[in-house]
Design brief:
Layout (H helix, E strand, L loop, with lengths): L3 E5 L4 H10 L3 E5 L9 H10 L5 E6 L4 H9 L5 E4 L5 H10 L4 E7 L12 E6 L24 E3 L8 H11 L3 E4 L4 E2 L2 E2 L1 H15 L1
Parallel strand pairs: 1-2, 1-8, 2-3, 3-4, 4-5, 5-6, 6-7, 7-8
Antiparallel strand pairs: 9-10
Helix pairs in contact: 1-2, 1-6, 3-4
Length: 206
């Protein structure tokens, strides 16, 4: 199955317009941290600009469930990505009020770091002490074998290692690649990098 592409960390109207032009499968809105964090109103405005065929993913770290429910109820997000310390109890409570697909991020350095969660998807990112993600660093992708759920491959993917990421995604049957800083220049989404990334992912698929 062709690997899908998520561009994460949209902040500006221009970011949404870039995605509308090149059409990745997913757009990520980050509601945690500092570097790419946006608020409810910004996310709602970006959703209104985005092509409805681009699915939106809300990225949360230990968020109040009511906040996620509100975003889901107002159709700002289509998927929920839990990138913090959320456990299966949290996921169960979230499912009671929100019927969107859930992605559970796991920060890993070795195979022993992989855990089971009652989510619909996993996302594998680089483990670094004191960080919940978005480090821009890669991990040893070879540990991702025999994963029982569809998963997003993240962690330092950029134009320099994209071909390798696509090869690994094909070998490991990854559902999608997740890229953020890899399509940025000086902390802002770069139109040319997005265009080239989408082009190479689509060409690999076909």
């Amino acid at each position: 199955m062709p690997v899908k592409l998520k561009i994460c960390g949209l902040k500006r109207h221009e970011d949404a317009e870039f995605l509308n032009e090149f059409k990745p499968d997913f757009a990520g809105f980050v509601f945690a941290g500092t570097k790419r964090k946006i608020d409810f109103e910004t996310a709602k405005a970006l959703r209104e600009i985005l092509d409805p065929e681009i699915r939106t993913v809300g990225v949360f770290v230990n968020a109040e469930i009511d906040f996620i429910r509100r975003l889901a109820d107002e159709r700002v997000i289509d998927f929920v990505q839990l990138h913090g310390d959320e456990d299966n109890d949290y996921i169960g409570k979230l499912r009671e009020v929100c019927n969107l697909p859930i992605i559970k991020a796991q920060r890993i350095a070795s195979r022993e770091d992989i855990r089971h969660y009652d989510s619909d998807y996993y996302l594998f990112d680089t483990k670094r002490t004191g960080e919940y993600g978005g480090t821009g660093e890669s991990f040893d992708w070879s540990v991702l074998s025999g994963i029982e759920k569809p998963f997003f491959l993240a962690g330092g993917i950029n134009l320099g290692n994209l071909d390798e990421a696509l090869r690994v995604a094909g070998e490991k049957s990854a559902f999608a690649l997740d890229i953020s800083s890899g399509v940025e220049t000086d902390g802002f989404k770069d139109k040319q990098k997005i265009q080239e990334t989408v082009r190479r992912v689509r060409n690999y698929e076909h």
